[in-house]
Structure formats: C-alpha cells, structure tokens
Design goal:
With 227 residues, the chain is α/β, with parallel strands linked by helices. Helices cover 42% and strands 22% of the residues. The strands form three sheets. The chain has a five-stranded parallel beta sheet, with helices on both faces. A four-stranded antiparallel beta sheet has the order 6-7-8-9, with no helix packed on it.
Length: 227
C-alpha cells in the first residue's frame, strides 16, 4: 500500500483528499503547513507528496526545493489555484513531478498520482544499480566495484557518491552537499570537509585523482558528476 503525504492548510480539502485516497486504497498522512510538510516528507515510507503551493510558514515551492536540496527523490504533485504557465514552470523547476491546478476533479488527481507513482517505480527498479566507466554501484547492497574488484567506501563516501549519481549533470555547491549528505543538524561551519571527502572519493573511483573525469570541479560553484 502506497503512503501519501498531503500538505494542505485547507482542512476540508485535506480531509476530502484523505478520505478519497483511502477509498482508492492508499494510506495517507496530513500536514497543515510547510514546516510540518517538510519534516514529514523526510520520513521513511512516504511514497508521494501532494503539496499545496500556498501554505503557512513555508510555501510549497520552498518545501519542494528544500526536499530536492537534501537529496530527497520522493515524488511531488503540486496543487495550486494559480494556472499561469510561469507558475507551473516555477513549481516544476523546484523539483515537482507534476502540477495540478485548482479546481480539479478528484478523478484527475488520482490519475496524476498513479502516473507519477508508475514512473518513479520504474525509475527505482532501473536505478538499483548504476555504472560509469569501470565502476559499478549497487544501491541495495551498497557494494561498489572498480574494474571488477570491490572498493571499500566509508558510509559517508558512499552517500556522497550516491548523491552525485542522483544529481548527475548538475553543478552542485558545497553547501548543498553538506545539507544533502551530512545530517542537517551536524553541518560543519567549514565547507572544506566536503573537499576532503571528495578528494578521498576521487582517489578510489578515478583512474587519476589529480585529473578527474567523473567528479569534476566547477569553478566558484562546487562539483559536477559527469558519469
């Protein structure tokens, strides 16, 4: 049974969505504002978030952006009374998987939810393993091989590699890596810790750590994974 988090400050709408989704066979969880939505969306076992744009404390766009910055891949369907193309683009650029404009039919919303869940399940099945060059990564067993030989990665190094793979092709800043790979409460005041861990990871996965081809430095930004 898929578990859906509904982040909606309109109590009657939230209750109606919850009742309808439960009738459709989903388990639901409710949050009334952006702060609670962000906190609950980070819990294990959340399969999808239905996220209103206009929320107290944090907007839906801010919640979605923060989730993605932390490395969360939980699918998000945004709800908004705004129907302009620019608003939809802003929501999708923040990391939303789909965007539904109010007023909407419940049947349409369920169809959108089912479509997003199908896409993400297919992606998850495909992404159980990942390869680049002569490196192979198994996300389920957390095993990494290079040239057919096992690599020993520390837990933080594996999380860093996983984050790079999930965000391949993106220029990722050091602050974003600290937030996504290190626990937020444990963020250190110096981003130098990121550089040290990247250097260690490069020595293990690159053929030549002094001239990396997989984790490249982006001047004045951070790093980009090219695999």
């Amino acid at each position: 049974m898929s578990r859906i988090l509904i982040v909606e400050d309109d109590q009657s709408l939230a209750a109606g969505l919850s009742d309808g989704l439960r009738y459709e066979g989903y388990s639901t969880l409710l949050a009334r504002d952006g702060d609670d939505g962000l906190r609950l969306a980070g819990r294990p076992g959340i399969d999808l978030v239905i996220l209103d744009v206009m929320l107290p404390r944090l907007t839906g766009v801010e919640v979605c952006r923060k989730l993605r910055e932390r490395g969360s891949t939980v699918p998000v369907v945004m709800l908004s009374a705004k129907g302009e193309e620019l608003d939809r683009v802003i929501g999708l650029k923040a990391g939303a998987d789909d965007y539904v404009t109010k007023p909407f039919s419940f049947t349409e919303l369920v169809a959108r939810v089912e479509a997003v869940l199908r896409r993400t399940r297919t992606f998850a099945a495909r992404e159980r393993t990942y390869g680049f060059g002569d490196v192979r990564v198994n996300f389920r067993t957390r095993d990494v091989e290079k040239g057919g030989r096992p690599l020993t990665l520390q837990p933080r190094e594996f999380r860093l590699l996983e984050y790079f793979i999930r965000h391949r092709g993106e220029a990722v800043g050091r602050d974003r890596l600290l937030e996504g790979v290190w626990d937020q409460d444990a963020i250190l005041p110096f981003t130098r810790t990121v550089d040290m861990h990247v250097a260690k990871l490069r020595r293990k996965i690159e053929d030549d750590a002094s001239d990396p081809c997989w984790i490249v430095t982006v001047h004045r930004v951070g790093y980009k994974f090219t695999g």
